[in-house]
Amino acid sequence: MSGRLDGKVAVITGAASGIGAGTARLFAAEGAKVIVADMQDDTGAALATELGDTARFIHCNVTSENDIAAAVDLAVSEFGQLDIMFNNAGIVGAVGPIAETTVEAWDNTIDILLRGVFLGIKHAARVMTAAGGPGVIISTSSTAGVAGGLGPHVYTAAKHGVVGLTKSVANELAPMGIRVNAISPGNTVTAMTAAVTTGDADDVDGATSRIAGMSPLGYAGFPEDIAAAALYLASEDARYVSGHTLVVDAGQTTAGMTPNRMHTGATRQFHEAGRIT
User: What whole-number distance in Å separates Cα of residue 31 and Cα of residue 159?
Assistant: First the structure.
């Protein structure tokens, strides 16, 4: 590795699995100290142990302001600073026809996907501005955040909100040298997408095959592909990039769309690591 993040300290939410875990491993390999923040205690703690002295785990429910503040403060108390905040935690959340979507399902999904990003940006800004900058804040949106028809209704609304919040906060924080960007992944092989595409969160091979079949490039994207985008935005290579949403989707959003099956059938909620309620 090239040490592109030598001396940097990052907080990553949703870091126990999927894109978050891939990013935690890459950031650590590139020289960063990492706070692994997640509700999945066993897998999160195991990842921090795997990464060794460069990482710490903290239980974090991103809908809780106290939990987000504690994760940010842990970075400062353990490693002396906060340079990178990656607001990555997410779920698919409520799926089904709009006329059958409950207010409870709407609120639960928005709380995790948009409130959680707001809280992460808020507390990263608190620490970064107090330090006089600079800093980097990255949030995970989705192709559903840049186009309609690519995700369930509530998910789409929240992910569009992430893009809008990114642009707005980038404008505020730019004078302090704090860059604020988003990443919009296309279909990426994780437990969550395995649950959606195959009905089984553990069927990674099946998800890989199905996602490859939908990819304009003919092959599937993996957490490492999104982690590479996060590394670029976190590094000095992106020193002149702020307020931007980097789409990483094999060209999916340029190739036309097919009807989204998440707008039909029974209403459900997909939660962490592909769990369905």
Answer: 30
Residue 159 known to be catalytic: yes
Domains and CATH numbers, the chain: 9-190+221-252 (3.40.50.720)
Catalytic residue among 159, 184, 215, 235: 159
**Residue 122 annotated to the active site:** no
Is there a catalytic annotation at residue 2? no
The active-site residue out of 141, 142, 184, 235 is 142
Per-residue pLDDT of the chain (277 residues; tens, 9 = 90+): 689 999 999 999 999 999 999 999 999 999 999 999 999 999 999 999 999 999 999 999 999 999 999 999 999 999 999 999 999 999 999 999 999 999 999 999 999 999 999 999 999 999 999 999 999 999 999 999 999 989 999 999 999 999 999 999 999 999 999 999 999 999 988 877 877 778 877 888 888 888 888 888 999 999 999 999 999 999 999 999 999 999 999 999 987 555 455 556 655 665 555 555 5
DSSP letter string, 3-70: -TTTT-EEEEETTTSHHHHHHHHHHHHTT-EEEEEES-HHHHHHHHHHHGGGEEEEE--TT-HHHHHH
Exactly one of 141, 155, 184, 215 is catalytic; name it. Answer: 155
Q: Parallel, antiparallel, or unpaired: how do β-strands 268-270 and 93-95 relate?
A: antiparallel
How many CA atoms within 13 Å lie on the side-chain side of 81?
A: 15
Name the pTM for this structure: 0.91
